[in-house]
Structure prediction request, 328 residues.
Amino acid sequence: MAHRILIVDDAPIIRLMLKDILTANGYAVVGEGGDGNEGVEKFKELSPDLVTMDITMPEKDGIRAMEEILALDQKARIIVITAIDQRESLMEAIRVGAADYIIKPFETDRVLSAVRRAFGEE
Amino acid sequence: MDMSADGSRPNKAVELIIQLSIDRVSQLFSKFIKVGAKISLEKAYVTDLSEASARINAEDVQSEVIGSIVDVAGDAPFKFLFYAEAPTCLILTDLILQRKVGTSTDFDIYVRSAMQEIGNILASGVCSVFAADFNIRIKPTPPKVAHDFLGTIFQEFVMETAAESDQVLIVESRFHVVRYNLRCNMFILPSPGTEGVINNFFLDQI
Prediction:
C-alpha cells in the first residue's frame, strides 16, 4: 500500500507541484492544508504517514503547526519545505522535530530523496 | 546598473547589499521558472515618495498587473513588490508548472498563486542575503496578491511607508526571461531606519 502524505502550504501552485511529484512516484497524497490550522486539523482527521510543511503561512505558521502535530504524535514524520534559506530557521525546524528541510524552489530529486529517507527507503 | 537615475544615490553599504540581493534573486527566479532569466538593476535611488508614485503612474497607469507584496519583519524591515503584466503571469505559471506555454488562459488560483510564490521565494532570498551577510534577523510574512492597475498596486505598496517618511530608498529591477521576452519588475522599499542598521553593521566591521 502506498505511503499516505499530507501537504501543507498556503500556495496552491506548490501543493499542485508536490502532489504531481509524489503521485507520479507511487505515493498517495491524502490531503492538503492551506495554513497551519488546516494542517493540524487534517493531520488529526487523516493520520498521514508523512507531512510536508511550509513555514511562512497565514493564521498559524509551519513551526507552530509542527509543534502541535508532534504533541499529538511524537513519531509524526514532517518534512519542512520553505523558501526561508536561513540557518536560524533550519535549526529551529530541526529542534522542533522536522525530519528534513528543503529549500524552495525545489528539484524533484531533492523532494523524493527526502521522502524516501523519511520512510527509510534510502 | 544605474544607482542614481532619479533622486540621490544611496551609500556604498546599501549599494553592495542591493547588488548581492539582485544576484541572489536572479538565481532563485531562474531556478523556479526553469528558464534562464537575466535580472538587471534599473535604478536605486533616494526619492520623494510622491514623485516615485507620480512616475509610476505616468509610465504604466493603465497596465493591468498581478503583484505580490511581502512585508519583511525583523531587524531591518522592508517591503517587497514583484509584479508582471497580466498576460506575462499566465506564461510564468506555465513555465513553473512545466506546461506548454499557452495552457493557462484564465486568471485562476494557480496564476495568482504563482505570483504569490514568486514573491515569497524572491523576498525570502533577499532576507537570506541580509541574514547571512549582515548578521540581521529578518523574516518574510505571507505575501498579499493583488490583481489591479499598476498605479493602484504601487499606492498600496508605498502607503504605510509614506505615512512614516517622505524620503525613501527605492530599488527597482527588471527581469528579462530568455526566449519569451517577458518583463517583470521588482521593488524593494526599506522601512525608515533600515538603511541605518546596514550602515551601522558596516561601521562595526571597519
Notes: The interface with chain A takes residues 28, 31-32, 93, 96-97, 109-110, 113-114, 116-117, 120-121, 123-125, 127-128, 131-132, 137, 139-142 of chain B (CB under 8 Å). Chain B has one domain: 12-205. Confidence is low (pLDDT under 50) at residues 1-5 of chain B.
